[in-house]
UniProtKB/TrEMBL annotation:
Domain Helicase C-terminal: 484-630
EC number: 5.6.2.4
SMART domains: DEXDc (SM00487), HELICc (SM00490)
Protein name: ATP-dependent DNA helicase RecG
Length: 695
């Protein structure tokens, strides 16, 4: 890549270290960063409206002479100026002002105001407009004025000047060179890169402002296309890199001996959707490249059994499989379930958790190392350095969205431990469905299988929203359900600020409920219990010895007790959509009609109201995820805002789906036919960051 040296050696900016420090806060470290610090919006100072005819409800510029100037004391201290032109007049109100402004905006002065006109107490008014003193016949701006994201100590003007300098006199040769081949530019009718960046910083006078503001202008389209393309290229490269690695080929045995014996133990048959994803996964396992497949399926769709069947294929070929879960409770539950399933097949399951006794751990480690245990189940303890596998063929990560972004990245990078140049296959499972545009962008280097059907005989969960002052009705309902032999979860509020407080609340709730339900057995699980205590409590609940289980959100993932058919969630307004969906998924697992009661505290914020409405109206995880993405945006949705890994800055997955599709098809063409341009393109957009978030 020597020919690209000029691109990789991004020229440092010729600014003082003080200014550089502020630029860094805005993510600007080199000339291209600065050139791509595109305006967040524009102001139109290219013409002046007559005051009487200026449209309301949008930002407009007016010009007039100050005819009155007064500091008003009530209802609060403010500076009020009346401005007049030949068509009419309006008020400018400044709630915060300096003494110097009182002097400057003296009667007789001519000013231009930029702002929104509203109907106020004094008639037409502008509150805190941008105000500039001008001479009569002062020329108007000839272009739209860009407005940049700034940071303290680095005002608009300085930033605009720095950007202007880079556009005019970049130090780095070829800074704005085209990275797309002509053919692609023509095919998609894209404007040039340089032109686009220039246009966005200095829109020519005839530019349609609404296209600029709404980011639909061709120049925006080009920039967004380039950004999406960089993401696709980096994903495809990662995909190709994986294809250059070697994995054990895990053949499907003709007689499917183990699988048939395994399925014979079940008192149900697989759904069509399960059959389909099993076929996809098991085909990948036979390949000599490491699989990286994401298995998506709504809560309760039956992913565990799919994982078990994939594991059997590895084991049948003499390789080990490992299943990792994000919480102790879930890992333990998998261990119990899989041991019960695999024991009759003569397969030993090893168990690793951070909380276990040293002796147990030693013997589990030994069994995993010698291959006596062909399946290993555990929490992230499975990934720790001391664990060495006899021969790992398949790593399964359950509820992968629950692992932190950095953990997820680390898992993907390492592909778990490689052994003598052989990489294990990876299967990631998630109950948080990923909307299509997200899976095409942030997940583009993964293969995806989807279970789009629930096992038969499930009746959908009925969701009820109940204001907290109607708790007594809820209590009556619990009593009734338990008399009928059903079991109930009571989920305590999430208190993000303090784990101690959360624990305290859970304990108090449990005590209160014990006092109310003297005839019921009430249990409590929370994050501070030891692994053993949690297991014991869950076992009691599973066996039906406990009717009412008070729990913190530790039960959110994966817990499977089919007889539990009523769930109460306290302070549901504090929880996120995917969390509510996951929690609700703990009921509705048996044949009984299930109910989930969301208790909420009034008053509701508008966002909380919207969330509760969504969870009330929808049970389909995909739809809930789509709405969640819409509400929160991809950064929050993926839990990646603070990860430091680049997210999309300009493209909006909701609006730019078509561009994404184009970028996707261009990526492979570029890598095959124009590898040098592809490299330059990636480096322009990613610099040394080298990769987009992979989740
Ligand atoms: P999830 O996809 O949320 O991990 P699980 O694997 O825990 O779901 O499965 C939920 C429940 O459904 C379990 O009790 C499991 O035994 C049961 N189950 C799985 N597949 C089927 C099926 N094909 N028919 C009936 N029940 C099934
Ligand atoms: Mg599960």
């Amino acid at each position: 890549m020597d020919s690209d040296a000029s691109v990789s050696d991004a020229a440092a900016l010729a600014v003082s270290s003080k200014v550089q420090e502020k630029l860094t806060r805005l993510g600007i470290n080199n000339e291209m960063d600065l050139a791509l610090h595109l305006p967040i919006r524009y102001e139109d100072e290219t013409h002046v409206f007559p005051i009487a005819h200026a449209p309301h409800g949008m930002v407009v510029q007016i010009e007039g002479v100050i005819v009155h100037n007064e500091i008003v004391a009530k209802p609060r201290r403010q500076l009020v100026c009346r401005i007049e032109d030949c068509s009419g007049s309006l008020c400018m109100r400044l709630l915060n002002f300096y003494g110097s402004q009182v002097k400057a905006y003296a009667v007789g002065k001519r000013v231009r105001l930029l702002g929104e006109i509203r109907q106020g107490f004094f008639g037409a008014e502008m509150v805190h407009p941008k105000c500039r003193i001008v001479k009569e016949h002062e020329p108007l701006a000839t272009a739209m004025t860009p407005v940049y994201a700034v940071t303290a100590g680095l005002p608009q003007k300085t930033l605009a000047r720095l950007i202007h300098q880079i556009l005019r006199h970049p130090k780095q040769p070829g800074l704005f060179d085209e990275t797309l081949p002509d053919g692609i530019i023509c095919r998609y009718r894209l404007p040039g890169f340089k032109d686009s960046v220039f246009t966005l910083h200095h829109p020519p006078p005839d530019t349609q402002i609404n296209l600029l503001q709404s980011r639909k202008h061709p120049a925006w389209q080009r920039v967004k296309f380039d950004e999406l393309l960089a993401q696709q290229l980096s994903m495809r490269l990662h995909y190709r890199q994986r294809r250059s690695r070697t994995a054990p080929q895990l053949d499907q045995k003709h007689d499917h001996g183990l699988r048939i014996r395994f399925l014979a133990q079940m008192d149900f048959s697989l759904t069509m959707a399960q059959e389909k994803v099993i076929a996809e996964i098991c085909r990948d396992l036979t390949s000599k490249y490491p699989m990286q497949r994401l298995l998506q399926g709504d809560v309760g769709s039956g992913k565990t059994i799919v994982a078990a069947i994939a594991a059997l294929q590895a084991i049948e070929n003499g390789y080990q499989a490992a299943i990792m879960a994000p919480t102790e409770i879930l890992a333990e539950q998998h261990f119990q379930k899989l041991s019960a399933w695999f024991r009759p097949l003569g397969i030993q399951v090893g168990w690793l958790s951070s909380g276990q006794k040293k002796k147990d751990r030693q013997s589990a480690l030994a069994a995993i190392e010698s291959g006596t245990a062909m399946l290993a189940v555990g929490t992230h303890a499975l990934f720790q350095e001391q664990v060495s596998f006899y021969q790992l063929g398949l790593a399964i990560i359950d509820e992968q969205h629950r692992f932190g972004v950095h953990q997820r990245l680390a898992l993907r990078m390492k592909g778990m431990q490689q052994h003598a140049g052989i990489f294990p296959h990876q299967l990631m499972m998630s109950a948080t469905p990923i909307p299509r545009t997200l899976s095409m962008s942030y997940f583009a280097d993964l293969d995806v299988s989807i279970i789009d059907e629930l096992p038969p005989g499930r009746s959908p969960v009925i969701t009820k929203l109940v204001a907290d002052n109607r708790r007594s009705e809820v209590v009556a309902r619990i009593q009734q359900a338990c008399r009928q032999g059903k079991q109930v979860y009571w989920v305590c509020p999430l208190i993000e600020e303090s784990e101690t407080l959360q624990l305290q609340t859970a304990v108090e709730t449990c005590e209160t409920l014990c006092r109310i339900f003297t005839d019921l057995n009430v249990g409590l699980v929370h994050g501070r219990l030891t692994a053993q205590e949690k297991t014991n409590m869950m076992t009691l609940f599973k066996q039906g010895d406990i009717q009412l289980l008070v729990a913190t959100t530790v039960i959110e993932v994966g817990v499977d007790v089919p007889n539990a058919s009523l769930m109460v969630i306290e302070n549901a307004e504090r929880m996120g959509l995917s969390q509510l969906h996951q929690l609700r998924g703990r009921v509705g697992r048996g044949a009984d009609a299930s109910v989930c009661i969301l208790l909420y505290q009034q008053p509701l914020s508008s966002i909380a109201r919207e969330r509760l409405k969504i969870i009330f109206e929808h049970t389909d995880g995909f739809e809930i995820a789509r709405q969640d993405l819409r509400l929160r945006g991809p950064g929050e949705f993926l839990g990646a805002r603070q990860s430091g890994v680049p997210m999309l800055r300009f493209a909006d997955l909701d609006q730019d789906g078509a561009l994404l599709t184009d970028a996707q098809s261009v990526a492979d063409e570029m890598l095959n036919d124009y590898p040098d341009l592809a490299q330059r393109h990636i480096r322009r957009w990613l610099g040394d960051k080298t990769e987009y978030l992979r989740v």
